[in-house]
Predict the 3D structure of the following.
Amino acid sequence: MVFHLDPRAKTLMALLWTVVLSTAGSIPVLLIGMMPVLLIVWFSNQQHAFLRWLRLIALMITGWMIIALLTLDWQTALTVGLRILALSSIFFIFLRTTTPEDLGGAWQQTGAPFPLIFLLTTSLQYVQVMEQRIQQIIAAQRARGIPLEPGWRALRYYPALLVPLLVQSLVAAGHLAAAMEARGFSRAGRRQFLTYRWRLRDWLALGMTVMAAGFLLWLSL
């Protein structure tokens, strides 16, 4: 399944599907493009995590749909909502099935600059760290009587979440910079522990993605 593919193949597949669904302008094409993503979510047993992810982005999707509905029409509003849902779902399943270490190691093996790879992997690693800190801040603010449940009613209380999160992020960035300097980040001659190889299943998965993308583009014409 997707878990056993090379990280570079998964990156190319996710980018290709993102481009296709970004250019799709019809509701049926977006619905068809969402089907493989939902199947991967189902077969990878990520249903509960996906539902939690939907709760987090539901407010954003609703806001953009309301703006599109007030300025354009309901079809455009539905298209905008489906496109945001599709694109966010692609990167959800990509991040849930690819560890930052494997992603960085595979692309570094192709000759990509190490500072760029380090920036990418560190950013992805901090996604889970930030998620844990958000949950901790929400629990702490609830104990103080500040409701931070997802929804419009809690919108005015969001500064109680964003300000502590921003402060903790700046402190964490300072600690990371100090640790990098102490460990000689700029030292040359780094080597990888693992070796990543493209296999037949990677070529097959990428080829099927290319054909499916071509089919969706043909439907969009």
